[in-house]
Amino acid sequence: MIAPGLVARLLGVEVETLATWRRKGYGPRWYRIGGKIGYTELDLRVWVNSQAGNSYSAATPAVA
Predict the structure, then answer these.
(1) Does 24 have pLDDT greater than 90?
(2) What is the spatial distance between Cα 18 and Cα 56, in angstroms, rounded to a whole number?
(3) What does the H/E/C string look like for 27-55?
(4) Which has the closest alpha carbon to 37: 18, 54, 51, 55?
(5) Does pLDDT of 59 surpass 90?
(6) Smallest Cα–Cα separation from 2: which of 44, 48, 47?
(7) Domain boundaries in the chain?
């Protein structure tokens, strides 16, 4: 399990932001085990990948 402090650093947010996301049902999947919050690497990767945006302009050929 990865601690919230490290997750916050990896994502570039504050630990308090992760707590807010948990309360609002947003952010990466998390677990509470023995009273401690943790994240798995797989769940972080899945969530980060789900946040990727698409730029269709790069894929669309220019019209001459």
Answers:
(1) yes
(2) 31
(3) CCCCEEECCEEEECHHHHHHHHHHCCCCC
(4) 18
(5) no
(6) 44
(7) 4-50
Residue pair 1/32 in contact (Cβ under 8 Å)? The answer is: no
Q: Residue 4 pLDDT > 90, yes or no?
A: yes
Specify whether the CB–CB gap between 43 and 29 falls below 8 A: yes
Length of the chain, please?
Answer: 64
Tokens 């919050």 correspond to 37
Question: What would the pLDDT profile of 31-50 be if each residue is shown by its tens digit?
Answer: 999 999 999 999 999 999 99
Q: What is the phi/psi pair of residue 18, to 5°? A: -60, -40
- Round to whole Å and give the CA distance between 63 and 33: 56
